[in-house]
User: Fold these one by one.
Assistant:
Number 1:
Amino acid sequence: MPKRRHITVSNQCSEVDVMAEELKKEKWQPENWMEVLNNIREMRKFQDAPVDTMGCDKCMETVASPNVKRYQSLIALMLSSQTKDQVTHAAMNRLIEHGLTVENILKTDDETLGKLIYPVGFWKTKVKYIKKTSLILKDKYNEDIPNNVKELCDLPGVGPKMAHLCMNVAWGIVTGIGVDVHVHRISNRIGWVKKPTKTPENTRLELESWLPQDLWSEVNHLLVGFGQQKCLPRNPQCGTCLNKNICPFGKKNIK
């Protein structure tokens, strides 16, 4: 494969966009990827992982107005970083009981907000991010959230993973694959990246270069649950995995 060039890009096109286009031109697909995908679907058919009942898409009030639901989905995603779904879901329940709207969060002092979201990961930092983001949403978006990835990523504490997931959950628009630690780990293990990737963002670019776009929405939820139940960070259950004979990691792990 030819060495990729470092490209200085204009304001209209980020370096990430250029890298994504270069990956697509390579026209690479992993071997047996559809078989691997269908096997994971089979192992996930009961939909009983934590993400299935307590994921960020399950954390909003059912009776809230559309803009409040969108705000709540964004807050859930912000809380979910480095945090288990069970902890995020519990924190969201406390916030909703307290009153999870832009106006009410801005009226809430930092100490109270911290007690409501504790023990999510990096809760002190997230208190600051939530307050700053809420103020921006009030001043610039009429207490709604941005409807595009760029402006979502401009919010304090929001990165590409959150932005793409938020576009899907809040707006019903698929703009990219949300790659968290589970998707990043599993994609490397099952050989869905051409060469090992070091960051979730690099994994996202690799996946989007070959995975059909109509599967982008499914793959995050599918792999997160798979990572919570079987393809664990430590002691993965390779021996009972349907992909054990075709997964590069599994074939090495069960010898």
Number 2:
Amino acid sequence: MVERDNEIKGATFTLSVLHITDANQDKIRALLESKVAQAPHFFNCAPLVLNVEKLDAVPDFEALKDLVESEEFILVGITGARSEAMKTAAKAAGIAVMSSGKKRAEPVAPVASKPEPTPAVIPSRVHVGPVRSGQQIYAAGTSLVVLGSVSPGAEVIADDSIHIYGTLRGRAIAGARGNTQARIYCQQLAAELLSIAGTFQLSDALPAGLIQRPVHVRLDKEQLRIDSIK
């Protein structure tokens, strides 16, 4: 039997991001508690990233880390740090400094443009049959088509749109790499969670009149909009 060496590979994960405008611990605790109350199983030991872009002063990262972990989340990093002092303080607290990948481009002198090659089209990933509890299906770089239902506790993820020809009872995460034009379609809505490009909605916030109905979900002004398919 041939043993393989250890290796590092790239992978894509869906992370919840908490945007904070000040470091008031009471406000942060109240927000986290409200989210856990909505979906205790989903958020139990869930990884969390803090967006500190709107903070002017360097917060007490040790205290924030203790606070987040006391609410059963796991703080894996921060994003949006605007100063080296903030980055240094986060690293000293054992918190990773992450990049959102949205840097403003520097102005450059105009150059003669060359026609770019047409990118290869990646066909949609098609899953035939139900997606069972505990199962995860991920369509990297493309859309996902599920010819069946998605059970509670199951998760379907796509970098583009998700089409479910059945009942959605689990979690559907479209636009996993930030595609705000991604959509979610399903024949019957009963989802635990809907997410497009990081904006999510839990089961208790779903419109009652659309439960068990065919729907189309899209991102509209940084909020999820759910419309009936007639």
